[in-house]
């Protein structure tokens, strides 16, 4: 029974619960679907917008519920067209999300947690520590905000979504998959799963769970080193989640989903810029069908990490391509406004 007074966030209710609510109010169960369509297809931010409901019903909903929509408080635009949003959540916490335009695509890069618990040495978000998980509606709202910006500023639809903002999506798996369900459902934003990529540090047991769940979105793994000692020195998770375990999980993933894996990899001077590292990456790539994105390093510190030379990148690229592994060099976007990979740290 839902009582008036302590107002609940209506988007926390399942459709079934909302139906029960309307029936308990002496109304029809189908009213719930109408409200649900407003919330998840039309992304209504207020009850006033729900114009196919009577004024009375809208007033009644206001008595019982709130819609805790995120607020885009600050928007910065980069010279290259990238837009970074500082997003305030209902409890005042802030995350960032990014719109990345290219010729063919408009990609939304969204956050899944406030801060991050993983402590990767090269990432600015790691310094924020994990505060909490984002809820499904907070993730969904970031996508909607960027979808609206794509239409407003570029006159184009949002085409892709990457979970490469703040946080580790697989450590907030239930909420991330629930948001993706709303984003892909025809009774939601209706976007195709194959246009969504979840990027993870590589939590082995969660990759296996995803495989068991038969998820349809793409998987990207932030690898950065295929030699345990090196990977552990820059990504502490590797201490308890070794490359062997990761490799096994990825084999299981491929066996179940038949979906290629993308590895994200930064080459740093004196860390992983030797031929030995490139060979190790090649061996790792042979475990399952995969491709490699060599990401440009976005400096976040006083020089402990430095981007390797173009020659080193070519060495990696040639070795991989010669052995049939697709490899691309990904230039940073939005660097001038701290919107690039690893730079999201609520500087404002
Ligand atoms: N936790 C997830 C998603 C967030 S990070 C993950 O680890 O995949 C998104 C990508 O940016 C990851 O590939 C991450 O390794 C990379 N990244 C982090 N800091 C970076 C930096 N300073 N320069 C370039 N890429 C960085």
Describe what this molecule looks like in 3D.
With 348 residues, this protein is of the alpha/beta class. The protein has two domains: 8-66, DNA polymerase, domain 1 (Orthogonal Bundle); 71-337, Aldolase class I (TIM Barrel). Helix content is 34%, strand content 18%. The strands form three sheets. The protein has a ten-stranded mixed sheet with strand order 3-4-5-6-9-10-11-12-13-14, covered by helices on one side. The chain has a two-stranded parallel sheet with strand order 1-2. Strand 4 (83-88) and strand 5 (94-101) form a beta hairpin. Bound molecules: S-adenosyl-L-homocysteine.
Main β-sheet description: 10 strands, mixed
C-alpha Rg (nearest Å): 22 Å
Kindly report the spatial arrangement of strands forming the biggest sheet. Answer: 3-4-5-6-9-10-11-12-13-14
State the order of secondary-structure elements, H for helix, E for strand: EHHHEEEEEEEHEHEHEHHEHEHE
């Amino acid at each position: 029974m839902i009582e008036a007074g302590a107002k609940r966030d209506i988007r926390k209710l399942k459709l079934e619960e909302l139906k029960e609510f309307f029936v308990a109010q002496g109304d029809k169960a189908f009213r719930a679907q109408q409200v649900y369509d407003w919330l998840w297809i039309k992304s209504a931010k207020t009850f006033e917008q729900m114009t196919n409901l009577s004024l009375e019903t809208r007033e009644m909903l206001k008595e019982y519920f709130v819609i805790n929509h995120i607020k885009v408080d600050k928007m910065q635009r980069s010279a290259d067209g990238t837009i970074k949003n500082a997003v305030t959540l209902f409890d005042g916490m802030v995350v960032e999300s990014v719109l990345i335009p290219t010729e063919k695509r408009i990609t939304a890069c969204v956050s899944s947690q406030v801060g991050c618990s993983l402590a990767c040495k090269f990432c600015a978000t790691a310094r924020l520590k994990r505060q909490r998980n984002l809820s499904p509606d907070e993730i969904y709202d970031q996508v909607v905000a960027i979808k609206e910006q794509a239409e407003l500023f570029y006159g184009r639809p949002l085409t892709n979504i990457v979970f490469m903002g703040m946080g580790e999506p697989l450590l907030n798996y239930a909420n991330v998959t629930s948001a993706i369900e709303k984003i892909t459902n025809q009774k939601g934003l209706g976007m195709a799963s194959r246009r969504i990529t979840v990027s993870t540090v590589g939590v082995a047991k969660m990759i296996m769970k995803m495989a068991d769940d038969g998820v349809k979105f793409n998987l990207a793994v932030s690898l950065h080193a295929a030699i345990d000692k090196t990977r552990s020195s820059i990504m502490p998770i590797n201490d308890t989640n070794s490359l062997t375990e990761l490799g096994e999980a990825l084999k299981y993933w491929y066996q179940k989903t038949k979906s290629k894996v993308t590895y994200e990899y930064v080459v740093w001077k004196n860390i992983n810029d030797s031929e030995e590292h490139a060979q190790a990456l090649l061996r790792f790539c042979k475990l399952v069908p995969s491709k490699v994105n060599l990401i440009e390093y976005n400096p976040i510190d006083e020089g402990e990490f430095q981007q390797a030379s173009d020659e080193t990148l070519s060495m990696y690229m040639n070795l991989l391509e010669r052995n049939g592994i697709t490899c691309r060099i990904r230039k940073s976007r939005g660097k001038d406004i701290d919107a690039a990979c690893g730079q999201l740290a609520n500087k404002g």
